[in-house]
């Protein structure tokens, strides 16, 4: 890759902020992983592939809500950004089926919405 | 098409959870008004409010109602949902209590993707600095910001940088202290794992300001994921020329290496840390000389904490003045705390300096898990002290905590309820410091051990009243004569618990009683004959056969055999075993 200069930084910034794709973001710090975030991530990865979802799957660090790990943030279908807490593999399935596929939030799991 | 989302959560601290019941009623209301297609009702697990009764949050308008009753449902639907009118008597107008500066990207960006960091204004500060700022101007901006070190001592960052810049000798070094050894503290780990590029950018700005050419991350080896994320980020930076020669086509050249700490608490102390990087034993040596004059390999060195460095790009990107708008006169910006112990929502919080401690405990973290009273909050880890319940109004900043006999420290915050024993807490921290003392100087090595022995005696019911004076005397000599911060601060938890909870020490000594029921040696288990149904459950379960008797005469505990394991109390179905 070529060397960055100030213009490259500005260009990357503009390009990255211009596109606002839908995403599922899994908190993957040591704490999240200890709470089962890797398994949850794997469920998303597998299902997104097998069911041809277009949503982007990302990793992120932890926002500090340790008590609610594993945390999953979803931005989809023009709805507010929703954070789900204590996500298990089953809840991950529900998030895909309800929230991502049908724009219905999953009950009893939302820990933040913005 | 759904136009609005209504979230529902019962946030009352007591009573049964009514979320589901209210949800059903609300759904009925929505159904009656034929709004099922437009309004989505959701039961939330948490809305970030505690002790506000039933909370209803309406999105995307972001309207929050609290203490909502069943009888309010109709008005909410008619006014707010159908006509967009706000109900003034229900509205909760609370400014967000948390401000994310050091954690601004944590949980938001992908730490393994440099483009995501750049999308969130990453490297904007660096490009401005390298192309438009003189080093003096950078230091000036830091001065305006008022940023003080987040690693414990709270030394103004700009003064450290200025002193290092003024040192003539070359090369100079920047060290990021990521040793994080305080039990209960993990905010640095979270930044290392969640936003590695911001720390790297902070180090680069520091290096430019002081004229350093080489940097080191000193990370504890117990943080493998942090090490991996930093390592990957450094590799990426080298690949795109953000580390190396002539960064961003400027004259500035800089590179960073990682060194692993073996996990000794004292290696977080700056002089011990540098000795460790040099490959020597990680023991402290006296200051002066200060690292800014003679640090790593005798060269001028700036050593800063992870959180300190993560604040730096923010300051240079959005301006020192803007940063200084947050906080109090003596303490600017925010502080990240790791709140643990008997707290409902343990986790990381980032709050503006000057926030009442009470708001952190109750409004952000939801109070104690047990619902019992907070007895005290320990801040500053093994170098800090306790803030008793009566002082929870304190506005948290460097100076106020110090006035209360504690310190800000690195940001551990341990919440204790009435089940915690203050002598036991002091013993825990003292034990930690005795374990971690490097043994180089006598006050720490011998004094710490002496204090620990006295505390052990007191918790075993063998204390003497004169012990309290002895504790204070040893504490003062350790504070005055120890070589490094470990020994100087090790007695703090003892001094502070003695200050606020002397009567508890006395109870242990005189009445042989631990009111929290923590000090096992002071406990007595007895069978309350009036309640005992002679079922023999305790008799069969006692692992040391300390219970004698039969189904006719009833049962008795032989105190000389009892190991206070608590099994009998646990198994008794009639609450006939008392613990005192
Ligand atoms: C026993 C002891 C342990 C310490 N551990 C740490 C640590 O884990 N992390 C840290 O940043 N500072 C630690 N410090 C403070 C450092 O010596 C130093 O003051 C700090 O890294 C300076 O950075 P700052 O000015 O950004 O706070 C420790 C100090 C002592 C006395
Ligand atoms: S105070 Fe304790 S840790 Fe520090 S140098 Fe002395 S013996 Fe070592
Ligand atoms: S506390 Fe344990 S050892 Fe003591 S009497 Fe009960 S069961 Fe036996
Ligand atoms: S540190 Fe990761 S959520 Fe607590």
Largest beta-sheet characterization of chain B: 5 strands, mixed
Detail the poorly predicted runs of chain B: none
**What is the CATH homology-level superfamily of the largest domain in chain B?**
NADH-ubiquinone oxidoreductase 51kDa subunit
Q: Assign a percent range to the helix content of chain B.
A: 25-40%
Can you list the ligands bound to this structure? flavin mononucleotide, iron/sulfur cluster, FE2/S2 (inorganic) cluster
Walkthrough of the structure:
The complex is a heterodimer of chains A (114) and B (580). With 114 residues, chain A is α+β, with helices and mostly antiparallel strands. Chain A is built from four helices and five strands. Chain A has helices at 6-18, 30-34, 37-50, 89-102; strands spanning 23-27, 56-60, 72-75, 82-84, 110-113. Chain A has a five-stranded mixed β-sheet with strand order 2-1-3-4-5, with helices on one face. The longest helix of chain A has 14 residues, at 37-50. Chain A is globular, with a radius of gyration of 15 Å. The N and C termini of chain A lie far apart (37 Å). Chain B contains 21 helices and 17 strands. Chain B folds into five domains: 4-83, Glutaredoxin; 114-321, Rossmann fold (3-Layer(aba) Sandwich), CATH 3.40.50.11540; 334-417, Ubiquitin-like (UB roll) (Roll); 422-511, Up-down Bundle (de novo design (two linked rop proteins)); 523-579, Alpha-Beta Plaits (2-Layer Sandwich), CATH 3.30.70.20. In chain B, the strands form five sheets. Chain B has a five-stranded mixed β-sheet with strand order 10-9-13-11-12. In chain B, strands 2-1-3-4 form a four-stranded mixed β-sheet, with helices on one face. Chain B has helices spanning 19-32, 73-83, 114-119, 124-132, 135-145, 157-166, 187-194, 196-210, 224-239, 270-277, 306-318, 320-324, 357-364, 398-403, 422-436, 442-459, 466-481, 485-489, 492-511, 537-541, 567-571, and strands at residues 4-10, 39-43, 54-59, 63-65, 173-178, 214-220, 255-261, 301-305, 334-341, 347-352, 374-379, 385-388, 412-417, 525-527, 547-550, 554-557, 577-579. In chain B, α5 packs across α8 and α16 (442-459) runs antiparallel to α17 (466-481). Helices cover 39% and strands 16% of the residues of chain B. Chain B is α/β, with parallel strands linked by helices. The mean pLDDT of chain B is 94. Bound molecules: flavin mononucleotide, iron/sulfur cluster (2 copies) and FE2/S2 (inorganic) cluster. One iron/sulfur cluster is lined by residues 266, 284, 437-441, 444-445, 482-484, 486-487 of chain B.
